[in-house]
Specification:
By secondary structure, the protein is an alpha+beta fold. The protein contains 6 helices and 9 strands, in the order βββββααααβαββαβ.
Length: 263
């Protein structure tokens, strides 16, 4: 639900541990201002709880499942034990991204000399277009500033978002490596090997946000390192390049084989 209407039964929410008592703990729900909740000791952990303070601490941020909610009282019954580790990790990551996105929007508002009162509207438009605000900033860097062309926000906001994104968002770097053994008999063998490796380097660098490093390991082996924003694309590009080398060398009368190794 929205912050105005409150949480739903069955929803996973962020909670902040406030007052711990022998039979449970009271919490606040920062996503829903004004709402509080209670987690009974029986809903703290799947294991036996001898001392509740061994499981929760004041000020701690956790993820809880809403069991019941009274919107009139703005009070919820909640559970920690019904939240899996994967769900808690995902929810906390969503919160981290939301906070960072808002921080970047505040910086953009300051740069554009726009009032912070406009931020909620800009936040909604970016979330509608990209899923969340931080993704909008990331896409500006990863894909290009043209991704904002279809978003209904003013040009000064767009310019500020682009500038803040380019300043604040780093493209992640993931590197994978393969060792390639190349053998080409005859007087032109060295030329064929050089051409095969130059073709590989050119193919890697032709891909956006991709980097290549090719170096001699020891006869007849060469190392090829591919760096891209994520492992999946790096692995795919590395395999394609290595297969191209094998085909090129074999077409020239040589032999080649490759294997994936740790970078």
């Amino acid at each position: 639900m929205s912050a105005e209407t409150g949480p739903n039964t069955g929803e996973y929410v962020i909670v902040v541990i406030k007052d711990i008592v022998p039979y449970g703990t009271f919490v606040e729900l920062p996503e829903y201002p004004g709402y509080r909740g209670f987690i009974h000791i029986s809903e703290i952990s799947t294991s036996w709880v001898k001392n509740i303070r061994h499981h929760v601490k004041e000020g701690q941020m956790r993820v809880a499942k809403v069991l019941n909610v009274s919107h009139q009282r703005k009070m919820c019954d909640l559970s920690l034990k019904r939240v899996s580790g994967a769900i808690e990790k995902r929810k906390l990551e969503e919160l981290r991204r939301k906070k960072r996105g808002r921080g970047l929007l505040r910086a953009a508002a300051k740069m554009a000399a726009r009032p912070e009162s406009e931020i909620p509207e800009i936040e909604k438009k970016l979330a509608d277009a990209f899923g969340d605000v931080l993704t909008a900033f990331e896409e500006v860097v990863f894909t290009g500033k043209h991704v904002l062309d279809g978003v209904d926000i003013s040009e000064d906001w767009k310019a500020a978002i682009i500038a803040i994104a380019q300043k604040s968002i780093e493209i992640p770097r993931k590197t994978v490596r393969a060792d390639v053994e190349i053998r080409v008999p005859g007087p032109f063998g060295a030329r064929v090997i050089r051409e095969a490796l130059l073709r590989a380097e050119k193919k890697i660098k032709s891909k956006e946000h991709s980097e290549a490093k090719i170096y001699y390991v020891g006869a007849p082996t060469y190392a090829i390192e591919v760096t891209t924003p994520d492992y999946k694309s790096a692995e795919k590009l590395l395999a394609a390049v290595c297969e191209d080398i094998v085909k090129f060398v074999e077409d020239k009368g040589g032999s080649a084989r490759w294997e994936r190794v740790d970078a």
